[in-house]
């Protein structure tokens, strides 16, 4: 693991949906370091179906994530030492999800 080096957005992998969720979103890849000391991480920005069809959403953060295809949230978590693998966005806001989080 590369420590102390900032993450950069490498690319948007593309749209993604999971059969276990009621919504869809986009997968992005972050990278940091160089050469054999580089590290990559994929981040899924998940948007709830309710947020995707909402016309009067109370969360401006989720609205920005939808408009940017998840980029605004990926930019935010790229500043973290340990970015989450999933960001859940709904009509009320966003939540970073780590593997050990319970639902």
Walk me through what this model shows.
The chain has 103 residues and is of the alpha+beta class. It has one domain (8-97). The protein contains 3 helices and 5 strands; from the N terminus they run E-E-E-H-H-H-E-E. The protein has a 5-stranded mixed sheet. The mean pLDDT is 90.
Briefly, what is this?
The chain is an alpha+beta fold and 103 residues long.
Fold blueprint:
Elements: E1 8-16, E2 23-32, E3 39-48, H1 49-53, H2 60-67, H3 71-77, E4 86-90, E5 93-97
Parallel strand pairs: 3-4
Antiparallel strand pairs: 1-2, 2-3, 4-5
Number of strands: 5
Could you list the spans in which at least 5 consecutive residues all have pLDDT below 50? none
Percent range for β-strand residues? 35-45%
- Major sheet attributes: 5 strands, mixed
Give the SSE order as H and E letters: EEEHHHEE
Basic shape: elongated
Q: What is the share of helical residues?
A: 10-25%
Question: On the 0-100 scale, what is the average pLDDT?
Answer: 90
- Summed up, the domain count is 1
Q: Termini, distance in Å?
A: 27 Å
Distinctive features:
single chain; 103 residues; alpha+beta; 5-stranded mixed sheet; 5 strands; 19% helix; 38% strand; elongated
């Amino acid at each position: 693991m590369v420590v102390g080096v900032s993450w950069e957005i490498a690319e948007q992998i593309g749209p993604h949906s999971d059969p276990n969720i009621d919504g869809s979103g986009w997968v992005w890849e972050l990278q940091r370091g160089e050469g054999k000391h580089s590290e990559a991480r994929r981040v899924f920005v998940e948007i709830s179906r309710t947020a995707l069809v909402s016309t009067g959403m109370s969360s401006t953060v989720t609205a920005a994530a939808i408009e940017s295809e998840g980029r605004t949230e990926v930019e935010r978590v790229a500043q973290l030492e340990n970015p989450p693998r999933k960001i859940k966005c709904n009509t009320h806001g966003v939540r970073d999800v780590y593997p050990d989080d319970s639902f």
